[in-house]
Design brief:
Helix content is about 20%, strand content about 20%. A hairpin with a 5-residue loop joins strand 2 (about 35-40) and strand 3. The chain has a 4-stranded antiparallel β-sheet. It has a two-stranded antiparallel ribbon with strand order 2-3. The radius of gyration is 17 Å and the shape is globular. The protein has a domain at about 125-160. The chain has about 160 residues and is an alpha+beta fold. It contains 5 helices and 6 strands, in the order E-E-E-H-H-E-H-E-H-E-H.
């Protein structure tokens, strides 16, 4: 009997081993999101819509400067009965019981698409970050990062990228 086998092909042919090393303070560098690109839900996130978030005076950058910027496990869910305004408020809030990482730095890599032609989008701007697993779900993230066969992904969840 023949066997059909499916396996991850993400790193095949890249020469990479899927091993990410932290810096001297335990922070890993990751792409946190993409701009001038479609997300997995088919929404297009523009650089123009996100630029304000990366200004020093933005809430995002003030939180990062003070060391308060955290990452949450999964995407916030819209609970039945929740109004759009309540959902918007939820998107803009990190639930302490769901923290998975601390974010130390964020920056825009405007050349990411050019440096990575395999994505076939030279206009792609990467939101890069330095993260360290922390909070209640930090150990699960650390285990995922250390697993060379697991693809760890982040995304920036905010209405600013959607133009709402």
């Amino acid at each position: 009997m023949k066997t059909v086998r499916f396996t991850s092909t993400r790193l095949v042919g890249t020469g990479k081993k899927g091993i990410i090393k932290p810096d001297e303070t335990g922070y890993y560098t990751f792409p946190m999101g993409g701009l001038n690109a479609f997300n997995s839900a088919g929404e297009y996130y523009t650089l123009e819509g996100a630029v304000e978030l990366f200004r020093e005076s933005s809430i995002l950058m003030r939180r990062m400067d003070k060391g308060y910027l955290k990452s949450e496990l999964g995407h916030p869910k819209k609970i039945p009965g929740m109004s759009d305004d309540q959902y918007l408020e939820r998107i803009m809030t990190i639930e302490e019981t769901n923290v998975v990482a601390h974010i130390k730095e964020l920056w825009l890599d405007h050349d990411f698409g050019i440096k990575n032609p395999q994505f076939k989008n030279p206009a792609l701007v990467a939101i890069m970050g330095k993260i360290r697993p922390s909070g209640p779900h930090g150990p699960a993230l650390e285990a995922s990062i250390q697993n060379p066969c697991e693809n760890v992904g982040f995304s920036i969840q905010t209405t600013a990228f959607r133009g709402l």
